[in-house]
Amino acid sequence: MKINTALILCAGFGKRLNPITLNTPKPLLELNNITVLEKCINLIESLGIRKIIINTFYLREQISLFIKNKKFKSNIKIIDDGENILNTGGGILNMISNSDENDFLIFNPDTLWQPEYFNEIIKMEELYFSKNLENILMLVNKKLSFDKDLKADFDLENYIILKNDKKNFIYIGCQILNKKLLANQKVENFSITAIWNNLIDKKKLFGFKSHNPFYHLTNLEIFKKLKDL
């Protein structure tokens, strides 16, 4: 089995990167002359996925124009959050409501998605289907994070995500999710972490360990350091 549709979360305000995000949405910030959104789409297309859904809200017109002008190989549909921002959970539910698929690969574009993630995502997908899972999150040990101030939220044991005192792992913005997990939710403002926390309590939130260095647009200071690399 294979995932056919990827989602990219592009609706956020990017407030931690003010003032540069006052006029430019965070997904369209450039590092080495390429936007972080384009890096994300390039990785998705390399995986053989040809359907991409992007949600927008803040500075939505810029993202729509960027997609239109770039003429990517994949079929990219833009779904707007509407009059009010929907947060991560509501945004994901709004996107999957516009698809007939059951399983989705979901990205946050503020991670720098390098080609090196290709093999890890393939392995994570294989694990997801072989174990008949309904979710899996890509995590990285905090030692591999470029931003040393970024807090770790999770522990990981035998692919099961835990919340305990260890907290050595960071979610890096890539997950696979089955739409069943959101079946009882309404399209409204809610965080995907609320779904995760419920699954953690049942020991049903699964994780896959990445071994790549983790670069993330946490804030303006980190963005400036990444530009100097």
Report on the structure:
This protein has 229 residues and is an alpha/beta fold. The protein has one domain: Spore Coat Polysaccharide Biosynthesis Protein SpsA, Chain A, CATH 3.90.550. Helices cover 28% and strands 24% of the residues. The protein has helices spanning 36-46, 60-70, 87-96, 118-130, 192-201, 220-227, and strands at residues 5-10, 30-31, 34-35, 51-56, 75-80, 103-107, 135-141, 155-157, 160-162, 169-178, 207-210. The relative contact order is 0.18.
Write a concise synopsis of the structure shown:
With 229 residues, this protein is of the alpha/beta class. It contains six helices and eleven strands.
Key attributes of the depicted protein:
229 residues, alpha/beta, Spore Coat Polysaccharide Biosynthesis Protein SpsA, Chain A, seven-stranded mixed beta sheet, 6 helices
**CATH third-level topology:** Spore Coat Polysaccharide Biosynthesis Protein SpsA, Chain A
Give the number of DSSP strands: 11
DSSP strand content: 15-25%
Across the major sheet, the strand order is 5-4-1-6-10-7-11
- By CATH reckoning, the class would read Alpha Beta
What series of H and E elements makes up the topology? EEEHEHEHEHEEEEHEH
Task: Kindly report how far apart the N and C termini lie.
Answer: 39 Å
Content-based structural category: alpha/beta
Largest β-sheet summary: 7 strands, mixed
Number of continuous helical runs = 6
Quickly count the domains.
1
What is Rg? 17 Å
Q: Roughly how much helix do the residues carry, as a percent range? A: 25-40%
In the CATH hierarchy, what is the architecture at level 2?
Alpha-Beta Complex
